[in-house]
Specification:
Layout lengths: L5 E5 L5 H14 L4 E6 L6 H7 L5 E6 L11 H20 L4 E5 L1 H6 L5 H10 L5 E5 L5 H6 L2 E4 L20
Parallel strand pairs: 1-5, 1-6, 2-3, 2-4, 4-5
Length: 172
Amino acid sequence: MEKGYIQVYTGDGKGKTTAAFGLAMRAAGAGLTVYIGQFMKQGAYSELKAIARFAGQITIEQFGAGGFIRGEPKPADKEAARKGLAAIRSAMASGDFDIVIMEEGNVAQMTGLITEDDLLSVMDAKPGTVELLITGRGATPAVIEKADLVTEMKAVKHYYEAGVAARTGIES
């Protein structure tokens, strides 16, 4: 790419990760290469199976110790996030990827796995030809200010509130 921008998908509505994976698939279809670092996740989510079909064009790694969502993160959770930050920086600097996605990067910051300064530093380190996409609710005003494109997903109504559990292939 001639010029890469910084995109942020945030807000309380559903669809941030789905939009990021849609972008990754569109990019792969155009012959671009994508790196996805999933913060907070560990396990066999359905998107891993789909992305496996794009081996060589889309690389995905998980940086969650497994199970952390709320409360005080454990040292293992913070260490996994540190490894994720290093991998994101490495992917951006490698020259191997056109697009780098920090999936749940905002949530990692919001929950204390990484700091706002960590996130802003990654944004500052982005090479000019790499597109950086950060997903997750809770993007800070500083992250929003530094981004070139910000999309906020707004929750209007969700069947989860009526007791519908996450469904394979739709939410997980």
